[in-house]
Design brief:
Shape: elongated
Strand content: 15-25%
Strand order of the largest sheet: 6-7-9-8
Structural class: alpha+beta
Radius of gyration: 20 Å
Distance between the termini: 67 Å
Helix content: 40-55%
């Protein structure tokens, strides 16, 4: 089979909405792979999100449909063998602590920093310090980042009620004591106070 045939076969096997990376074809001539990616992008079969990162586009009568930022982040993390954590306003939104839908979704990564433009949304990967990835439970790591985004002294009564509902269910199956110790003291105090209320 020619490289073009191998590329087409892999393209056909990929599900719509999945990512295709130039590095998926690292065993072949990279200049030619680059030409194929550019050709598929030009005719609309792929959409270039960033250098070496392409999306197999899903087109409907309403326009292109994109995977969620979380799905894209997970695919990049698998490809790069790294960890990613949702942060900022996106993390707040994930837990229902904010109803605002961000136009820029931030992830902390143990891999490379980069930006991707997906439709009208920008996905930014920022290098995180090792402590961000020391949590046993990724959910608690993300919750910590959501609370950091809100800030000390800015958690409202409504947000506290959301946290209480979340922890009431989450603590049924999870032990968060060790992860709490990794959080800033103000977050520890906040969550420990809610945990005591939940356990009464």
């Amino acid at each position: 089979m020619t490289i073009a045939q191998i590329f087409e076969e892999e393209y056909q096997k990929a599900e719509k909405g999945s990512l295709i990376f130039a590095s998926d074809f690292a065993d072949y001539n990279q200049d030619y792979i680059g030409d194929l990616l550019a050709r598929y992008s030009k005719d609309g079969r792929l959409e270039r999100l960033a250098n070496g990162v392409y999306l197999k586009t899903t087109i409907t009568k309403f326009g292109p449909v994109y995977p969620t930022p979380a799905k894209i982040a997970e695919a990049i993390a698998r490809r790069d063998h790294c960890q990613v954590l949702m942060a900022g306003l996106a993390a707040e939104n994930h837990f229902g602590l904010s109803t605002q839908v961000p136009m820029k979704v931030v992830f902390l990564t143990s891999g490379s920093a980069r930006k991707l433009n997906v439709g009208n949304t920008t996905i930014e990967f920022k290098r995180g310090v090792p402590k961000n990835f020391a949590f046993k439970d990724e959910t608690m790591a993300t919750l910590c980042l959501a609370l950091k985004s809100i800030g000390n002294g800015h958690v409202t009564d409504e947000q506290r009620a959301v946290l209480k509902r979340f922890l009431k269910n989450y603590l049924l199956d999870h032990d968060i004591k060790d992860d709490l110790k990794l959080m800033p003291q103000w977050i520890q105090r906040l969550l420990n106070g809610i945990v005591k209320e939940v356990e009464l």
